[in-house]
Design a protein that fits this description.
Length: 834
């Protein structure tokens, strides 16, 4: 059922909202491009499955060369991918990739959209994909975006066939075809029609490609030349595309900025075929729409535009505004008024922000804010009123040219203000393949508009504008300079276990530690701390006083209570009840230099791994790869972990060389290479000879999965093996033990098929396809209806030591608290102890 969230037209004003924390004027070259885009009526929607699937070269050309408003619809937020930056997986990774896409869109100028589909990892075909995704739900989301954005042309990145290379890729094309047919049908998803009208795009195309050895282009397809040089950008569109795509940093998607023209190819899918251009038969101009006066006005504005003094265009733009306001087409008027008002504010050189010194705020508390306003146009902008959430104040003050005014005001955050978090993470997912959203009209948005903002009523000439300025936090960073981010609403009190998981053996008490973080100025006197399993209380204690802003509480769950729970993996939740209010959330804060601070809230929960997990290692050397949790997991398990650096291979305490270097490595019971270490650690080539010597002299080397992209070392193994894009995506796929008596399956833990139960997302990826006869494969597994694969783990004896290559997805299983995966991993680490 669709629920209304907000309207655009308020009290006779058109509200101008910028998704950033400040409203700032565009550069004059950007203003000029926005005016040219206002003159062109067609729209294009590019559609694919994931962040980084978009063709940024084509987007850049459409926006900057064709001046066509263009959007990218990614079905997912990339939640199921891998992370080259840190340990975030799942929802946290999807949040990172959402904002990396938004940063990319700031460069190429496209709009960004999403559906509710959850990226559950690699799938091999559409059958597998639609077992996870409800096709009707995702189709409805795409229809909703089409009806809102109203594109004339939809372009798919992928076909609905195996040539797409990924089941979710192919599924994006399947959904696109269904949505193209239904968007113009009033009987399809009729609840949407309370808020949008039906819309039928002109055509659906497939942007064919050459990816590796796959070439889907043909000379009889529609061809478009892109990549031209743009003097206002100072680069070609292919160069801009490289900069845009390189912002997908969590995926390691750095891309060359390639100068020069190239050809894009398009295959017809549905609708009217295109013979010469993407826009054959599409209404391109205001004149063709019956509004020749608007075309004429825009031509005069563009002809007289002064790049050094864009404010000279204000009178003509304000006159144009009246013409656009008079349009009978409500959808077109709403669309173009928003763009025109942004152009007018930019020409006026208007900047506005509502900022405070604190990054976090609590509902009900008071904070001092500064409203900073400035205009760079002489005698053009009048500040009439300011609405401070729950108060209104009249000013009728003209903004002097280039003179900043600052208005101080105390603002109370509403008692019912919601916590700051992504709208798609505010409620538990509907199912494994679909996010829940609190209001259906949020579907498609990359993020929700902040409900906490200052409204500035402006008058420019005789026209009135209402500008939303989100409540924001501003600080001076000594490296980055001014940092302006969204004010983050947090609970009055947060609960968090001091470590993300615990390991407890049979017949042991469980010792837990919780951190209390008090965010409110209001004191807490006392309360009750409860621990729950499956919603049932298994422990409780009274907290007599809350000591300061940050303190910890120790709690012991007796072994008798643990023994009564028949499970090897427990999810325990904590709650604190004080003064009739329940506090049970922990903040997840994500901070990377290329993004603003990102926040969401999760239950105050912890994973407990209970059972017989034996380990014979005490000290492990770790070579970091792409961010993963395994070093932290090993430390939690009581293992000393040293992250190896250059000095561990080349340095020595006495300045000598040779054997002393090897002696430094010989202290480790095992050395582990993190996931994709050969793709991320550029010193690995220099280190490998030392690692081989370590193995030869009795060491144990465990190497996790790598890919063939951007490799450092050509031959990873002591003996040759080749990596292929072979994987087992079914996390419950049957596993056959090729040699049940192998030491890696029997010491110190006896491994059985039960240890492969409860795995998440996948068994593993990038299995070796061929290997030297010196290797012994341990397992055989495969996805449904596929050939058996034996490359999930290879073992070889070398000299006195052991080498193990395992692309099994331990980096996913161990953070998830999978006891069987932990038992197997410790067997690998303990290989030299048997």
């Amino acid at each position: 059922m669709f629920k209304k969230v907000s309207t655009v037209f308020i009290l006779g004003f058109y509200t101008v909202f910028c998704s950033a924390q400040q409203v700032r004027p565009s550069k004059s070259s950007e203003i000029y491009r926005e005016i040219k885009t206002l003159k062109h009526l067609p729209k294009v929607l590019y559609l694919a499955a994931h962040p980084d699937d978009e063709n940024t070269g084509l987007l850049s050309w459409l926006i900057n060369a064709q001046n066509v408003e263009t959007g990218y619809l990614s079905l997912t937020r990339g939640d199921g991918g891998q992370n080259l930056l840190g340990t975030e997986q799942g929802a946290a990774l999807g949040l990172i990739r959402t904002h990396e896409l938004l940063e990319a869109r700031k460069l190429d100028g496209a709009r960004q959209f999403f559906t509710r589909a959850i990226d559950f990892g690699f799938s091999k075909n559409t059958t597998d994909t639609f077992k996870q995704w409800d096709a009707d739900t995702i189709t409805a989301d795409v229809v909703w975006v089409i009806r809102q954005f109203r594109p004339d042309v939809i372009i798919c990145r992928f076909p609905p066939t195996a040539a797409a290379g990924h089941g979710q890729h192919a599924a994006s094309a399947v959904v696109a075809e269904k949505a193209f047919k239904l968007a113009g049908d009033k009987n399809a998803f009729p609840n949407q029609l309370k808020y949008v009208n039906v819309w039928q795009p002109k055509r659906l195309l497939w942007n064919t490609f050459r990816f590796g050895g796959v070439n889907t282009t043909a000379e009889n397809q529609l061809k478009i030349t892109v990549g031209q040089y743009d003097a206002q950008l100072g680069m070609g569109y292919g160069e801009l595309a490289g900069l845009s795509r390189s912002l997908h940093k969590s995926q390691g998607a750095g891309t060359q900025s390639v100068a020069g023209i190239r050809t894009e190819y398009f295959s017809h899918v549905m609708g009217d075929p295109a013979k010469a251009t993407l826009f054959d038969g599409v209404v391109n101009t205001w004149t063709a729409k019956g509004n020749a006066d608007i075309d004429q006005s825009l031509d005069k504005i563009m002809g007289a535009f002064n790049f050094n003094n864009p404010d000279q265009s204000l009178p003509a733009l304000l006159a144009l505004r009246k013409k656009v306001m008079a349009l009978a087409d409500v959808d077109l008027k709403k669309d173009k008024m928003k763009a025109l008002d942004n152009i007018i504010l930019s020409c006026a050189g208007f900047m506005g922000e509502a900022v405070t010194n604190q990054a976090e705020a609590v509902a009900g508390n008071h904070y001092n804010f500064r409203l900073n306003l400035i205009s760079r146009a002489a005698n053009s902008v009048v500040l009439e009123n300011v609405k401070w959430l729950n108060q209104s104040e009249s000013f009728n003050r003209q903004l002097s040219k280039d003179s900043l005014i600052t208005i101080q005001h105390d603002i109370q955050i509403p008692e019912d203000a919601a916590l700051t978090e992504p709208y798609w993470l505010a409620k538990p997912a509907r199912d494994a393949g679909t996010f829940s959203v609190p209001n259906d009209t949020l579907i498609g948005l990359p993020e929700a508009e902040s409900p906490l903002h200052v409204l500035a009523d402006l008058k420019i000439g005789a026209e009135k504008f209402q500008v939303k300025l989100p409540l924001s936090f501003k600080k001076l960073d000594p490296v980055r300079g001014d940092v302006v981010e969204a004010l983050r609403i947090v609970p009055a009190l947060e609960l968090k276990f001091t470590q993300p998981l615990y390991l407890v053996k049979e017949n042991e008490d469980l010792h837990l530690r919780l951190n209390f973080k008090v965010n409110s100025d209001k004191p807490f006197s006392k309360g009750i701390l409860d621990l729950l399993y499956n919603g049932e209380r298994i422990g409780s204690t009274e907290i007599s006083s809350v000591k300061g802003k940050d303190f910890t509480v120790d709690y012991v769950i007796p072994k008798t209570k643990l023994a009564a729970i028949n499970a090897s993996r427990l999810q325990l939740e904590a709650r604190f009840l004080a003064e009739g209010i329940t506090y049970n959330k922990k903040q997840v804060l994500i901070q990377y230099p290329h993004l603003s601070s990102l926040q969401y809230f999760a239950p105050a929960a912890v994973t407990v791994m209970k059972g017989d997990i034996q380990s014979k290692v005490k000290k492990v050397g770790y070579i970091e790869g792409a961010g993963d949790f395994i070093p932290d997991f090993l430390r939690i398990a009581g293992v000393q972990v040293d992250v190896l650096k250059d000095e561990d291979f080349y340095g020595s305490t006495d300045g000598s060389a040779g054997s002393s270097r090897q002696n430094r490595l010989s202290q480790y019971d095992a050395i582990v290479l993190g996931v994709r270490a050969n793709n991320t650690e550029k010193k690995l080539g220099r280190w490998m000879p030392f690692l081989w010597s370590y193995v030869k002299e009795g060491g144990n080397l465990v190497m996790q999965y790598n890919t063939n992209q951007d490799t450092t070392v050509d031959q990873l193994g002591i003996y040759h093996f080749s990596i292929a894009n072979k994987r087992v995506t079914e996390e419950n796929a049957a596993v056959t033990f090729l040699n049940p008596n192998h030491k890696l399956l029997n010491f110190p833990n006896k491994i059985t098929t039960d240890d492969f139960k409860g795995w998440v997302q996948e068994r593993g990826a990038y299995f070796p396809a061929q290997w030297d006869a010196a290797y012994e494969p341990l397992f055989e597994m495969h996805d449904t209806d596929e050939e058996p694969l034996q490359g999930s783990t290879l073992y070889a004896k070398y000299g006195k030591g052991n080498f193990i290559y395992t692309p099994l997805a331990f980096f996913r299983q161990l953070p998830a608290g999978n006891t069987g995966a932990a038992r197997l991993f410790f067997n690998f680490l303990s290989a030299q102890k048997n």
